[in-house]
Amino acid sequence: MWSIIPSLDALLQALAVAFTEPSFQTHRDLFLGWIMCIGKRTEYRVFQTIHASSVVSRVEHHPFDRFYNFFSRSAWTVESLAHQVAVAIVLALNSTGPLYLVVDDTLLHKRGQKVYGLGWFRDAVASTAKRVATASGNNWVVMGLAIPIPLSPEQILCLPLSARLHLPGAANPSGVDLAAEMLAEVLRWFPDRQIVLIGDGGYAGHGLLEDLDPRVQYVGRMRGDAEIYDPQVPPQPAGKRGRKPQKGPRLPSPREVASRADRNRDGQEPWAWRDIEVTVYGVTRMLRVLAYQAVWPEVLGLRPIQIVVVRDPEGKFRDAYLFTTDLGASLSWVVATFARRWSIEVMFKASKQVMGIEGPQHWCRESIEKLAPRVWLMQSVVSLWYLTVGHAVPEAESARRNLGPWDTEWSLGARPPDCDHGRDN
After folding, report:
1. Is 117 left (phi over 0), alpha (psi -120 to 50) or beta?
2. Domain boundary at 258, 292, 326, which?
3. Domain for residue 400, yes or no?
4. Residue finishing a domain among 326, 344, 378
5. How far is it, in rounded angstroms, from Cα 292 to Cα 337?
6. Does residue 341 lie in a domain region?
7. Which of its termini does the chain have fewer beta carbons within 10 Å around, N or C?
8. CB-CB contact of 324 with 334 (8 Å)
9. Quick one: which of 301, 300, 124, 129 has its CA closest to 220?
10. Is residue 99 domain-shared with residue 28, that is, in the same domain?
11. In angstroms, rounded to a whole number, what is the distance separating the alpha carbons of residues 122 and 115?
12. Lowest-pLDDT range, 119-123, 192-196, 261-265?
């Protein structure tokens, strides 16, 4: 019978307040069974792994009812569990300073006429710059904490904190609305902390950004042809009648500003590139940027923003059009902060390829709404354990010597099984 090692069990015990006593025992069994399961992680295979010492038949009555009921009938809530996991992570890894949150969505592939929340959504993995691919599944909006790894600060790791199921149909909340709900949730959890929210272009939306909490600064991507205006209102004649203007004249779009800067070879025009040094993705490099202030009424009303156009002098990636609500932020900070967004893509890959989050074949609403968020939260717990305690256990030190040139110690896939569990002898 598999048993959990004490240092990891201590983290799980801190989450007990989110469950009743019987549900917590089931939670611990499922946690270990999920880690120990070999192959595709269907619910039945995970449950069978928990009872590895006994032969279980699909035909005869099997002792798995309490595991199925844990998702479909148990009274525990994802919100309560997420709160406990978030507090544990922040206290251990980000006890001071702002919280850098990153939000994005991912598609978990599923099929079946009775699967709750099923729809056809954009498949980011199969899509290209010229072709948008769609697939059947559950679309999830996930918010995670993007933090430097304590023992390797140049690396950024995303630990999932909260997730919401994005239901198909115009009558249901959009991804932007769900992101706003999760942001409000995190603000309640940490009422005294400043937050930096990072999102891709799909989250530069009215519902998330127009009434942004004063404790939140946003860094994201914008359209290259965005309709933006001068925040300075020109002086009006004293006797002019009618409504007073609330914004200045329209400014060139970010893409047009980049074109004008390319033509400004003599430096006589107001738009000019400047070079900055910035560390992104663990590499320090020189980039070309230009910045200006504007208002973007369609998204943020009349709140001024700082727009930063970023170009790679080596031409390895296309121009990026970034913006932030922090008008005093340095250009290198804006670029480095947005680069943290990539950590959530790495997290999604690990959840699918290592944690097997797409394996379960459940279909009812209660199971759909609970199982995937719980897997993401347990992924955070495993990462938290490794970063604080697990990297120092003898098994980890031994396995570290065997890592190849392409292995990453902080990857879930690179962690040796002996670091995640123990076995009764």
Report:
1. left
2. 326
3. yes
4. 326
5. 18
6. no
7. C
8. yes
9. 300
10. no
11. 18
12. 261-265
Side-chain half-sphere exposure of 146, counting CA atoms within 13 A? 28
User: What kind and span of H or E run contains 417?
Assistant: helix 417-420
> Do 254 and 271 belong to one domain?
yes
Distance (Å, whole) CA 85 – CA 408? 24
Q: Do both 61 and 106 map to the same domain?
A: no
Closest Cα partner for 365 from 114, 178, 177, 121?
114
Which amino acid appears at position 70 of this protein?
A: F
Per the structure, the complete domain to which residue 385 belongs is given by 2-78+368-423
| Residue 69, phi then psi, degrees to nearest 5 | -65, -25
Q: Judge whether residue 423 has pLDDT over 60.
A: no
Q: Is the dihedral of CA 193, 194, 199, 204 positive or negative?
A: positive
**With the CA atoms of 172, 378, 15 and 144 taken in that order, what torsion angle do they form, in degrees rounded to the nearest 10?**
-50
Q: DSSP secondary structure string, 192-220?
A: T--EEEEE-GGG--HHHHTT--TTEEEEE
Whether residue 189 is found in the same domain as residue 228 = no
pLDDT tens digits, 306-338:
999 999 999 988 999 999 999 999 999 999 999
The answer to whether residue 73 scores a pLDDT higher than 50 is yes
Q: Domain for residue 114, yes or no?
A: yes
Only one residue has tokens 């790495």, namely 346
Spatial distance between the Cα atoms of 157 and 384, rounded to a whole number of angstroms: 10
pLDDT digits (tens, 9 = 90+) for 190-246: 999 999 999 999 999 999 999 999 999 999 999 999 999 999 998 888 877 878 889
Q: Are residues 122 and 178 in the same domain?
A: yes
Global pTM value: 0.93
What is the C-alpha separation between 362 and 248, in angstroms, rounded?
54
Residues 117 and 146 occupy one common structural domain: yes
Q: Are residues 84 and 203 in the same domain?
A: yes
Residue 38 lies in a domain: yes
Question: Of the given ranges (43-57, 102-116, 146-160), which has the lowest mean pLDDT?
Answer: 43-57
Same domain, 176 and 227: no
Q: What is residue 374's predicted lDDT score, i.e. its pLDDT?
A: 98
Q: Determine the Cα–Cα distance for residues 360 and 371; give it in Å rounded to an integer.
A: 9
Query: Which one-letter amino acid corresponds to residue 69?
Result: N
Structure tokens at 385: 């354990």
Q: What is the mean pLDDT of the chain?
A: 91
| pLDDT (tens digit per residue) in 95-115 | 999 999 999 999 999 999 899
